[in-house]
Amino acid sequence: MTTIKAPGDWYYDRSGALGSKSTLVHLTTPMSINPGNEINVICDAPIKIELPSGEHLYMSAGTATALKAPVKMYLSPTSNLGPDFARGWNSLPDELKVMVLQRSLVRRDGYVRCHDESPARPLGDVLRQHLAMTPDIARLAHDVFYSRNLFSIRGSHIPKIPPLNARHVIRRIRLVVKLTTDGWNLVQSVNSGGFTSLKWIYVMFTWDGLFRRNRTSLQNLPSRSEGTAFMCSAKFCYRKDPDKYTRILLTSQGLDTNQVQTHIERLITFGTS
After folding, report:
1. Domain of 73?
2. Residues near 43 by Cβ (< 8 Å), separated by ≥ 6?
3. What SS3 state is found at 52?
4. Does the model's pTM come out above 0.85?
């Protein structure tokens, strides 16, 4: 057995792998292993193993090799698929192809963070590997990745938004913004940013930043005429309660959190799609 130091003990082991009860996988396309799961893998080419942290290594698995990890691992072969795979793939209906691609391209335990690339990097790498395969796989992989994942957009000085050529496919967004002018501008940018297939959006406002850079009053917040209307269904909330400093500033201007919340909630309307 060979042990590699990483976040937790993850290993590959060629001793007696065929004798275990784990699933035997002949790796030909990228896949992931969830924490606590174990598989036996065979691959005709070296395999790249990557952790959510970005740490990775390459290993050979010409014979059955056991893989186990306490954290999620991403596996991808390093060779071309070959003509036999292409003929077999092309013979499948699109419904089956989508089911296959979802196993490695859809994050089922959370969301893809647009504002922080490192946690999503392994999944992004898997997408790039699929885009470099056949034209048919690239087309379907692009649509599966962007239409089946939940994308989180967080307000910042220069917020990161999914690429323009993918926005028309995205169906679900988690939007976290501050109660500031920049935050409100981001809400409006998402609404008018080409997300034409959006079915659901989760808008979360945070109190940090409110009244801090300038002593804004309720009158300086967006007016009713600056409201925005989403055509999709939504969930709307505030992240945590305002801290003591924010409450003092609100009180000094004769305001309370309910007044601000009521004002903001009147500015956003949602559909039922």
Report:
1. 1-79
2. 26, 27, 28, 60, 61, 62, 77
3. coil
4. no
